[in-house]
Structures are given as structure tokens and as C-alpha cells.
Design brief:
heterodimer; A: about 280 residues; alpha/beta; about 35% helix; about 20% strand; B: about 130 residues; Protocatechuate 4,5-dioxygenase, Chain A; 10 helices; about 0% strand
């Protein structure tokens, strides 16, 4: 049977991707960040999972404003890299797993999550920056990926609790798949940040630290954080953190924290990274 | 009228992109989305007004685009992720765009971020700041 063995929480700041693509990772501004990700990268190389489910949000690239799905599962065999306005990132296309993705959709819909099916979809920095952080710059990505895109652009985003419950349903779906597969799930975005208006640049280290702690200590309490609290305490774009709760929900009741890293800033963002193994 | 949480409007220096703002900004955001294509970026830069006329947005929105009046664009229904495409078209970054919204030179904004960013203290609510 397939199993979700671990979760990765990570920010997906586009400037991190640009730093890698332009060979700037050794610069004083960036070096501490990339050093902080080394243990996670090593963990990933040693763990060598077969499939990654990457929960992320599209930033007006795959979806314009005509159609805004709340939860969308990428069911394609391959996902091209989006041109977000400065040309596509020079990273390999992302290989999908259409059979498993279709199974996920079926299971989730029967579990009463109304999923949007994407048979063609470009992926943007929300997905590719976490891939770069965890896998570096390979010629081809070393595993198959099922993207799950969540609307956090137009309010309201799904609630933290809805995301947490979706995570639980993803766990159930994966475990109902016969093939022996080791699956990791990524929750991406955040942590505290705001990139709009005169309040841009907001960072709340206390909020972020409590959020990281809560992932092991009391995820149910995190799932009850109302949307307005993310906005007020951690910045308008911190609502992305609800996507980490999908990851957390998919890991089961107990998890073991393997690694944690926190760094301010990458551009306007507080960068967080956590590795949680399902206990 | 749609009913929305009042708290959305109580956060200072912030325009929450809710259904109402999304409706107002629809054509503005679709224009911004069009800048994903290199040929559209070129066409826009060659004659901004002419290109903007292809989109049924308001004259206010067109003016704000041409002036790169970022906060006004937020107010008129633009969403930051779409606005970033205008910044990218100008070969600028998110960071530059954010500094413009804050109203400081980019170097000053970077300095603030390197020092740990903007504290939420004093920025939690308009009522707290007596802006209401």
C-alpha cells in the first residue's frame, strides 16, 4: 500500500528561485538561507520518496480571474513551467502521476471535497521554488509530483480547518492505493509576510514560531485559527499558511519533528522550513 | 450588497482582495494577466494607452497603470500577484513594488527587512490607530 511518510513545510518566495537561477546563492544576503536548507535537502536525498504531493497556490499564472478553483488537483502527465512575466524559470518540467491523481480526486470527491480537476496546468514558483529548495538543480526532477493548488488569492481562502480535514482525506486516499509507494507531502507558502500596501514588509516571528510549534504540539488548535488572525497578526499573504495544515492533516495524529529552520528575510518574507515524519 | 466580514476593512495599509474588489478589478487584473506573454509585454511597452484600450477597464484604472500608482491600483481592485506582472514587465521585482507601496526607496525597504521586517505592533487595526 502507499503511505505518506513525511511532510515538508516550506516558504515558496519567488526571489529564492531567482537567486538559484541567477547563481547568487553564495552572496551574503542569500548564503544563510541556503545553508539553512542544507539539512532538509540531505534528508530528502536520503529519504528518496517515490511521489510528492505538493500543496501550493497559483499566483495568477495557471488560473486567471475567469476561473478560481478553491482546491484543484493536477492530473496531467506533465506540468510545464509558467512564464510569470520574466520568462519561465530554467527548471525541468514537472512529471505528474495521472493514475494516482485520478484516484485521489475520486476518493476526495466521494469524501465530500469538491475538487477541480486540472488535466492541463502550468506550474509557477509556488510549486517550483520548494522543488528547487529540496532537490537542487537536477536535469530531471527525481520523483513524480501531484500538484494541489489552493485558492488563497481571492478571499475567502478555505479555512484552516477545511484544509486540515482535506489533509486527513488525502491520507485516507493515499493509503487506499495498492502500489507500494513512499509519498511525501509539501505544504508551501508563508510564513508571515505582506507584499501589498503601506503595511508591506510585516513580519511576526512570534506568530511563526508558535505556528511551527503547533504543528507537532497541537495542530487542532492551529486549525481553529480564524482567517482574520493570519491577516492581522502575520500579514495579508500569511493566509498561505493554511496550506501547511493540509500537509499536517495528511500525516496522522502523531508526528516527529526532524528539522526546523527559520530566517528573515527573503525579499518581503519570513522563510520557514520544517520536516515532520509520520510517527 | 454582499455581506463581508467587517474586520477585512479594519486592517491598516491593506486592501483585502475580496469578491467586491475582485469584481471591480476584473478587467484590470485580466490586463495584468495578459502580461504573462512576452509579445504582449512588448506591445504594452510600445504604446501603453493603446494596449490598455483593449481592456474594458475604467479610465481611473488606466491612469493608475500608466502612473504605476501601486496603492491606487490595489484600491481599484488590482491584486498584488497580478500587479507584480506589471513590475516584472518594467524589469523590477516584488521587492521594488513593495517599497513603492510603502513609499520608501528600495534600499530603505531592504534595510527594514534585513532588520527583521515591520513589527505588527501598531499595524493590527485601524481602530487601534484611530483611523476609523
Amino acid at each position: 500500500m502507499a503511505r505518506i511518510i513525511a511532510g515538508v513545510g516550506t516558504s515558496h518566495t519567488p526571489a529564492i528561485g531567482a537567486a538559484v537561477d541567477n547563481g547568487r546563492t553564495g552572496e551574503p544576503y542569500w548564503a544563510p538561507l541556503f545553508k539553512g536548507y542544507e539539512p532538509s535537502k540531505k534528508w530528502m536525498a536520503e529519504t528518496a520518496p517515490d511521489v510528492a504531493i505538493v500543496v501550493y497556490n497559483d499566483h495568477v499564472n495557471a488560473f486567471d480571474f475567469k476561473i478560481i478553483p478553491t482546491f484543484a488537483v493536477g492530473c496531467a502527465a506533465e506540468f510545464p513551467i509558467a512564464d510569470e512575466g520574466w520568462g519561465p524559470r530554467p527548471v525541468p518540467p514537472v512529471k505528474g502521476y495521472p493514475e494516482l491523481a485520478a484516484h485521489l480526486v475520486q476518493s476526495l470527491v466521494l469524501d465530500e471535497f469538491d475538487i477541480t480537476i486540472c488535466n492541463e496546468m502550468q506550474v509557477d514558483h509556488g510549486l517550483t521554488v520548494p522543488m528547487t529548495l529540496m532537490f537542487g538543480q537536477p536535469k530531471e526532477w527525481p520523483l513524480r509530483v501531484i500538484p494541489i493548488a489552493v485558492n488563497v488569492i481571492q478571499y475567502p481562502a478555505p479555512t484552516g480547518n477545511r484544509c486540515y480535514q482535506l489533509g486527513k482525506a488525502i491520507k485516507k486516499a493515499v493509503e487506499a492505493w495498492d502500489e507500494d509507494l513512499r509519498v511525501v507531502i509539501f505544504g508551501t507558502g508563508g510564513m508571515s509576510h505582506q507584499i501589498q500596501g503601506p503595511r508591506a514588509g510585516l513580519i511576526n516571528k512570534e506568530f511563526d514560531t508558535a505556528f511551527l510549534d503547533g504543528l507537532t504540539r497541537d495542530p487542532e488548535a492551529l486549525a481553529r485559527i480564524p482567517p482574520i488572525e493570519y491577516l492581522r497578526e502575520a500579514g495579508a499573504e500569511a493566509i498561505e499558511l493554511v496550506m501547511w495544515l493540509i500537509m499536517r492533516g495528511a500525516l496522522g495524529d502523531r508526528v516527529r519533528e526532524v528539522y526546523r529552520f527559520y530566517h528573515v528575510p527573503a525579499s518581503s518574507t519570513a522563510v520557514g522550513n520544517i520536516i515532520l515524519e509520520a510517527a | 450588497m454582499s455581506k463581508k466580514p467587517e474586520e477585512y476593512e479594519d486592517i491598516p495599509g491593506t486592501w483585502i482582495f475580496d469578491a467586491e474588489r475582485a469584481r471591480k478589478g476584473y478587467h484590470l487584473n485580466q490586463f495584468l494577466y495578459s502580461l504573462m506573454k512576452p509579445e504582449n509585454r512588448e506591445e504594452f511597452l510600445a504604446d501603453e494607452r493603446k494596449y490598455l484600450m483593449k481592456f474594458p477597464m475604467t479610465e481611473e484604472q488606466r491612469e493608475a497603470v500608466m502612473k504605476r500608482d501601486w496603492n491606487r491600483l490595489l484600491e481599484l481592485g488590482g491584486v498584488s500577484y497580478a500587479l507584480a506582472k506589471l513590475a516584472f514587465t518594467d524589469k523590477k521585482s516584488y521587492q521594488y513594488m513593495a517599497s513603492q507601496m510603502v513609499g520608501v526607496p528600495e534600499e530603505e525597504y531592504v534595510k527594514m527587512m534585513l532588520a527583521g521586517g515591520r513589527s505588527p505592533d501598531g499595524w493590527r487595526s485601524k481602530s487601534e490607530r484611530r483611523e476609523n
